[in-house]
Amino acid sequence: MRSDSAVRTVTTYLDNSARDDRLSGGVRRIPVTTPYGTFRVWTRRFGNNPRIKLLLLHGGPGCTHEYFEPCDSYLPEAGVEFYYYDQLGSYYADQPDIPELWEIPRFVDEVEQVRVALGLEASNFFLLGHSWGGILALEYALRYQRHLKGLIISNMMASIPAYNEYAERVLMPTIDPAVLAQIRALEAAKDYQNPRYMELLMRHHYVHHILRVPLDAWPDSVERTFKHLNQRVYVPMQGPSELGASGKLASWDRTADLGRIAVPTMTIGAGHDTMDPAHMKRMAGAVQDGRYLDCPDGSHMAMFDDQQRYFAGLIEFLRDIDRRR
């Protein structure tokens, strides 16, 4: 059942539905139709290349495009046209309080509506999904790969059960047992808003596997991403943290379907990631036309802590697939 705030969101949209979605600076607020009403998501375009147009799917769910901002320093000079995009429920998009919206098929429908609105097509459309965005990109490709020129799955495994097993077997043993016990106790009490919970995760897990930079030196774009995270989307789907997944996504597994992906695909893994880099390398071998980009010095946000290698590999892939024409 919709909350009063959700109904107000729909009403606000209907009152303003005649507005053009094109704003200044390449920004567009694109209408997205759902079973619960029509809302607007946020996109921003950079560059102009009729053959290489890259749509970026951020993680979370419920994060923002902001941590993709290193793209500004690499993609324009490489001649790549790219699009930042805040998914429904994220900070720059509408944030309806309707839990039924937070389902994978509904998000896939949203990406397709955004593709159509932006005029992306098989002759130019590259899709990059990072973390949760990798799940979304893979699901989109399984349903709509006829519209894709290339697919990039960054720092995301094809199986949440395998991710959870990796976290239990490899990542958790690196955390001090007393600290891990405190984290588990706070999770058992569902005390996720307790400042101590995130403090423990940041100091003992995130600085080693999410972004390998001292906390006091985290880039502003990453700080803004965490500040703007929508917990009402993130927790029901992912769970309370990046130390494994326990929400709606907990049983998601597309390992057996990778062979159906025929579009050229690159997977990106990192040596210190929350995700198993060996698994992501196997993903590249399981799709029909795949390659793997290894970022040995990187973590989950390898676009920061193994930046040169990350963007060099991404640009090389985009150019290689474009040359195939």
Concise summary:
With 325 residues, this protein is α/β, with parallel strands linked by helices. It has helices at residues 4-15, 71-74, 104-118, 132-144, 160-171, 177-188, 195-209, 220-227, 231-238, 277-286, 302-305, 307-323, and strands spanning 27-34, 37-46, 53-57, 81-86, 125-130, 150-154, 265-270, 290-295. The protein has a single domain (4-161, 250-323), classed as Alpha/Beta hydrolase fold, catalytic domain (Rossmann fold), CATH 3.40.50.1820.
The end-to-end span amounts to 49 Å
Tell me the name of the CATH homologous superfamily: Alpha/Beta hydrolase fold, catalytic domain
What kind of oligomer do you see? Answer: single chain
Rg of Cα set? 19 Å
Percent of residues in helical segments?
A: 40-55%
Beta-strand percent range: 15-25%
Number of domains: 1
Keywords:
alpha/beta, Rossmann fold, 8-stranded mixed beta sheet, 325 residues, 8 strands, 40% helix
Explain this structure.
The chain is built from twelve helices and eight strands. It is α/β, with parallel strands linked by helices and 325 residues long. The chain has a single domain, classed as Alpha/Beta hydrolase fold, catalytic domain (Rossmann fold), CATH 3.40.50. Strands 1-2-4-3-5-6-7-8 form an eight-stranded mixed sheet, sandwiched between helices. Helix 6 packs across helix 7. It is globular, with a radius of gyration of 19 Å. The protein starts with a helix and ends with a helix.
